[in-house]
Design brief:
single chain; alpha/beta; Single alpha-helices involved in coiled-coils or other helix-helix interfaces; binds guanosine-5'-diphosphate
Length: 330
């Protein structure tokens, strides 16, 4: 097994020990290292992650998604404070692919969860701001492992309900929760985008505004869920109504998470899902690595424009051009 591992420098050994000893500065520094795009940092980050991997895996990994304004940060703050009250340590990470486009993050920024960020039992880290969705998700996965090695018992990964980021977050967490507004028809949006299919738990937030509307939304979502094939024979997706602002329903939410964990552990699906996620992550890395290697290959770079032109002009079939380009990889 050791042959697979890269050796750790003395400096990074100290960093790893700092993380294991629960020093926040060491954790923050380690996350900065894994987020760096410099090749020499990448090598150090890999070694650091390998050293800490055996100490990871003990947290409950909770994914939370919903459109902007649904109340994610209000909810995560209320949930985080509830868990801290129960003696747990909570890390909040974010996957926000828009941050790489705009340079600013709509998620995970500390000022959104002011009370939670002041607690010494909480750690809030904004979304990595560079790279594609795949790159951002990869860094968040790695940050999650570091947070677990540090000793956080709950890791919340937040994402916005736009685009593909939900699938990425569902692929790195044990339970994926979708926050919905108490509006009729909202559920149809989620179904269209395929998000409801990957949700293990659905929350209708802002139930304080109009409890009747919230109940109606809950009934609608429940009937919509009937049309979907359940992901597990041992779990029926619950729909809860909740008010993050009034802190009403947060304890029941956590009780559902615990019920889910127990059911999945009992059936063996909990570990099965994690094993599957780890392998899927490896294949994602292989795919993106191969793509990068392909694009950077000198012969590919040289011949790509002409072959693209030939395909566009109908002078070459896409299949033969692809074969030729792939052939350059040897
Ligand atoms: P995010 O964009 O999903 O993170 O949403 P925020 O947490 O920033 O919330 C958006 C707005 O909705 C804020 O003004 C919150 O105070 C408000 N809000 C969040 N949860 C609730 C709730 O349960 N009830 C009510 N009435 N307002 C809420």
């Amino acid at each position: 097994m050791n042959a697979l591992h890269t050796p750790l420098s003395a400096e990074d050994q100290a960093l790893a020990e700092g993380v294991l000893a629960g020093r926040l500065r060491a954790l923050a520094k380690s996350i900065t290292l894994i987020e760096s795009r410099r090749p020499e940092h990448r090598e150090r980050a890999t070694a650091l992650l390998e050293a800490l991997l055996p100490h990871s895996g003990r947290a409950m990994r909770v994914g939370i998604s919903g459109v902007p304004g649904v109340g994610k940060s209000t909810f995560i703050e209320a949930l985080g404070l509830h868990l801290i009250d129960r003696g747990l340590k909570v890390a909040v990470l974010a996957v926000d692919p828009s941050s790489s486009l705009t340079g600013g993050s709509i998620l995970g920024d500390k000022t959104r969860m002011e009370r939670l960020s002041q607690s010494t039992s909480a750690f809030i880290r904004p979304s990595p701001s560079s790279g594609s969705l795949g790159g951002v998700a990869e860094k968040t996965r790695e940050a999650m492992l570091l947070c677990e090695a540090f000793g956080f018992e709950v890791v919340i990964v937040e994402t916005v309900g736009v685009g593909q980021s939900e699938t990425a977050v569902a692929g790195m967490t044990d339970i994926f929760c979708l926050l919905q507004l108490p509006n009729a028809g909202d559920d149809l949006q989620a179904i269209k985008k395929g998000i409801m299919e990957i949700a293990d738990l659905i929350v209708v937030n802002k139930a304080d505004i109009d409890p009747r509307a919230a109940q109606m939304a809950k009934a609608q979502i429940k009937s919509a869920l009937h049309m979907l094939r359940p992901a597990s024979p041992n779990w029926t997706v619950p729909v809860l109504t909740l008010s993050a602002l009034k802190n009403d329903g947060v304890a029941s939410f956590w009780a559902e998470i615990e019920r889910y964990r127990t059911a999945m552990q009992r059936s063996g699906e909990f570990e099965g899902k994690r094993r599957h996620q780890a392998l899927a992550w490896m294949w994602e890395m292989i795919d993106s690595g191969l793509r990068a290697r392909f694009r950077d290959h000198p012969a590919v770079k040289k011949n790509l424009p002409a072959l693209c032109q030939a395909v566009e002009d109908g002078q070459s079939t896409p299949a033969s051009a692809a074969l030729r380009l792939l052939g350059y990889l040897g």
